[in-house]
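INFO batch 0412 | record 1 of 1 | parsing
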Amino acid sequence: MQNQECLQLFEDYLKNEKKASANTLSSYLRDIRQFGSYLDLHTDTTILEADEDEVQEYINWLKNNGKSVATVSRCIASLKNLYAFLCLRQYLDVNPAARLVTDKSVQKLPQILTSKEVELLLEQPECVDAKGYRDRAMLEMLYATGMRVTELIDLNIGDVNLDAGVIRCESRGKERYIPMYSAAIKALSEYIELVRPQMLALPDEEALFVNVSGERMSRQGFWKIIKFYQKKAKIEKDITPHTLRHSFAAHLLENGADIHAIQEMLGHADISSTQVYSHLVKKQLKDVYNKAHPRA
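INFO prediction complete | emitting tokens
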């Protein structure tokens, strides 16, 4: 079996059986393509023919070429998943990636905004035109719900319940309902009632948030919006769409929210993914203590 055929089988498996997210699918396939290219250049074997030594040599090659611990760890995860699939489908009897070990490293805590920085960012869109109303609604929604940016742009108009003040979010085969605070409800209501009908390219468009062409907003389009308002607000921190998600979780924890409730709102399958915000809050408290205590 050639590398391209192997890659196609793995892609179909991830899409149809594992229901992998677009981001997971993209990163896995990118890692496997890079591995296949390495084999073509440095060996006479294919992905299916590579043995344990060749797989380990590839990981060593990544490290020697300056790849970060995070990048190498992700590549290891991609290879483990690929070869586990090939064994499951009985293309292989032995998994050559089974003994790969991820280097232990200090977990990098996500960067968050302070409450004042969030307020400053949310104040930037000016409701003087359609774009201003839309942008304010999107930023308020992201901070109100802690959604992933992909989930935000995938929302349809039917997912909104303004009367109940909740958003229905369906992601990775699971459904959840997330409440919104009053300012977010107001911003979303104004966008839907005053602006969205005039922005649509087609009257039956289902996308909640649309671009200037009247079609569903893209990830890249929303990334540019975030960067524009970060610059306008003169916030020094590097803000990404995920920064508001991190800030949402950390601020809820700071104010006493139950971690399991936050886990449900974020859509985390594993509580360990949510617990990183506990470490972040504790680190911030320690930083405050060290700066403020006279004997620290």
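INFO post-check: Residues 271-292 form the longest helix (22 residues).
INFO record closed
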